[in-house]
């Protein structure tokens, strides 16, 4: 009896394997590792960091691969030619987003800019964003906020480092810098800093920590409907809890700005649009925009800064070159300004090389096909989730010489084809905040190089391992020794 049972199990398994293999051949899907297990498919292969797992798979199966994540078909592309195909020929078809559980809550039921399906509503949001948030005039309007926040960071670092080198922790400082910049643009509020330590700030800090934690978690229920149905791990229950609190906090901010109409923040501009078009600019749309600014626009910039400084600490000769450029172009009598950035090619190349090696979104943001299409000659059925590995493209030896080395000078006089360097994505769904990010990262990194001497602690190399989280963080938060230079006195 037992023999019959074992025989039945093994033969069912083999039949399942050959059927899934034949159906893939028949449907001409991209190559896929075998076996995909019943129900879970390839989920068992997923080990963090995911971009490294997909990179190893692409080395074995090619630049376009298909994987079965539970009930969802996922295609991962890893070469510039496949990227080009995705975001030129198939750009409209691939401009949708999958509806993950997180988007039901923090995406306000998939209505915000990141999670909204491709269509009129998304187009309106992008148009609104390009006028109200990301236009040159809006960015210029908030220049004083960026300068002031960077100045406060420099002063903080200078506190114990005026006379000698002292150890500083940078991860939390950089994260606070980008959160303060965005919240001052959005609501005119600083929530990080000893002088701003009140109940509201404490509440915001607690909430945003939870929001980031939940946004960075992979949720198996997105791929295995049964787990979503039983709310495996109480994922949705805890999302509901934190979302309800965060939503109430944001609603409180809107109420406060309705009462005091004399400030000049993003909330005020959006509320005045609400007065003229209340049916479109609902509170939900405005809160959705704030959540996007916080989740897409803060950690991405601060981790980029942290990776850039880490790379410079491991390559002091490049740091010296950037410093010499700053001293020559800006001098030591004044601080670097945003308008200097266009005259600082070495600094610019350091940022490009950092974004190449450590893109904050190594797999971009997941896309979904709204119709059947073809990538690399393979069939991509409608409803497929598309992951684009910027990380693999940026380390492709067919595109980049010595791809794993930090060589900012590789960008000197180089015109890079759009599909070969995609830290901000490509096509219609690419990042609308890249201009703001370039300004924040450029001015902050330039100021840190201009104002301080930097050294590694005990001469040991900075550990460059990636951790897990929403935007590719460093596994080990960056700590370094720094000593203020004379130019710091200009800001006291
Ligand atoms: C170094 C900093 C940043 C990096 C590396 C980055 C990268 C990206 C990437 C890779 C995408 C997805 C593109 C795709 O789906 O194909 C994206 C989308 C987006 N980013 Fe950024 N980003 C950064 C900063 C910002 C900032 C500062 C903001 C706003 C304050 C922002 C707002 C957004 C929004 C709203 C989207 C969604 C666009 C859409 O779906 O239509 N990002 N970003």
Automatic annotation (TrEMBL):
Q: Where in the cell?
A: Membrane
Query: Would you say which domain of life the source belongs to?
Result: Eukaryota
Q: What is this protein called?
A: Cytochrome P450 81Q32-like
Q: Which InterPro entries match?
A: Cyt_P450, Cyt_P450_CS, Cyt_P450_E_grp-I, Cyt_P450_sf, Plant_Cytochrome_P450_Monoox
Keywords per UniProt: Heme, Iron, Membrane, Metal-binding, Monooxygenase, Oxidoreductase, Transmembrane, Transmembrane helix
Cofactor(s) needed, names only, are: heme
Q: Which species expresses this protein natively?
A: Coffea arabica (Arabian coffee)
Question: Which segments cross the bilayer?
Answer: 6-22
